[in-house]
Amino acid sequence: MLRFLARRFLGAVITLLIISAVTFMLFYAVPRDPARIACGKVCTPETLELIRHNMGISDPLPTQYWHWLSGIFLGREYPGFGSCDAPCLGYSFVNREPVLATVMDRFPTTFSLAIGAAVVFLIFGVGMGMLAAVKQGRATDKIASSASLVASSMQIYFVGTLALYFFVYQWQLLEQPSYTKFSDNPAAWFSGLLLPWLVLALIFTANYTRMTRSQMVETLSEDYVRTARAKGLSKRTVFFRFAWRGALGPIVTIFGIDLGVLLGGAMITEKTFSIQGIGMLAVKSVSTNDLPMLLGVMVLTASFVVVANIIVDACYALIDPRIRLA
Hints:
The chain has 13 helices and 4 strands. By secondary structure, the chain is mainly alpha-helical. It has a two-stranded antiparallel ribbon with strand order 1-2.
C-alpha cells in the first residue's frame, strides 16, 4: 500500500507540474501583453510598468515559470505591491493581495456547498438507483429511470432561477441563499445553503441514479452473485454483501472526480445564488482579467481532482477485496 501511495503521489506531482506549465503558457505566452491584462481595467502607465517588472515580462518564458514555481516553496516579493509568503500561487494585481489568501478565504463557502450537495445526491441518487435495480422492470424502476432522465437534461441556472422564484420569493418557504460560518450559527449555515444544495444535487442525483442502477443490474447477473443465491443466502445478504460492494467501485471513482471538481468551485450554482465561493471568484477574475488569480484557481482545482483520485484508488482495496494495491 505504501509503495502504491508513493507512486501515485509522484504521479500526482508530475501531473500538476504539467498542468501548471501548460496553464502558465496559455495565460502568459498567448496574450500579446499579459501584464496589461493582469493590470485590470483601470491601469495607469506607472502601475503597468511596475507589473511588467514584477511579472518578469522581459525574461524568457521558462524563467518566468520558474520564478512562479519557486514562489510556491520559497515565497516571492512584489516591489510596490507587497510580499507573498510560501506557499505563493502568485499575486493579484487587481485585488492587491496574494492569490492563495483570497482563495482560502472563499474556500469554506465552496467546501460547505460541495459537501452538503454531495451528501444529498449520494443518499438520494444511490438510494434510488439501488431501488430501481431491485425493482427492475417494474413501475418503480420505470419511474426512477424516467425521472433521472428528465432531471439530467435540466440546467442549474434554469432550475435555480425557478427555485428562487417559487420557494424564496413567491411561497417564502426557504430563506434567501447565503453563507454563514458553521461555527457562528449552524442553523443559519444550514438554512442559507439548503436551496443551493438541493438544486446542485438535482443533476448529480439523476446521474448517480442511472449509474447505480446499471452497475447493480450488471453485478446482480455475475456468476458469484448467482452462486451466493444458489447457496441459500437471503436476498438482503446477497444484495448488500456481494452485489452492492461489487458495484461500488465505479460509483466511488466518479464521486471522487465530481467532489474534486465541486471543491474547485461550482461556478454556475454560485453565480445563480450569488454565493461568494471559489466559483464566483473565478467568474469575477475573468471579468476583471485577473490572470494570476485565474492561474491559481485552475491549479488548485486540478490539485483537488488529483488528490481525490488518489484517495479513491486507495479506497479500492477496502471496497472490493478482489483488488490488491502493491
